[in-house]
Amino acid sequence: xxxxxxxxxxxxxxxxxxxxxxxxxxxxxxxxxxxxxxxxxxxxxxxxxxxxxxxxxxxxxxxxxxxxxxxxxxxxxxxxxxxxxxxxxxxxxxxxxxxxxxxxxxxxxxxxxxxxxxxxxxxxxxxxxxxx
Length: 132
Known about the structure:
Type VI secretion protein, 2 helices, 31% strand, PAAR_motif, 3-stranded antiparallel beta sheet, Tumour Suppressor Smad4
């Protein structure tokens, strides 16, 4: 899973206007001011980026994680100029797959204990089975 992109994280841009390369630059404000990742607002699809030519925009993000009703942007996501976000916050990972499994077997195995308990009528927790 790639790290979450935020305000100020950098992108690279391969576009050229005439003989002038765009190079790339940071993600611009406002991003999502109500969602803070590493003390900075989270970036989303549609947020603008500095570029030597006209401003760039984040074009691709997570298909499953929405921030302020827009797909979350991550390191490696694409921009409208064909560039790529090259920075992200290393401890916040945003993927596109379904939820990960739990347990020591790396998530491989019997499915959700909550679903199994609901199907069998068993209590959802140990305290519940003790009646208190």
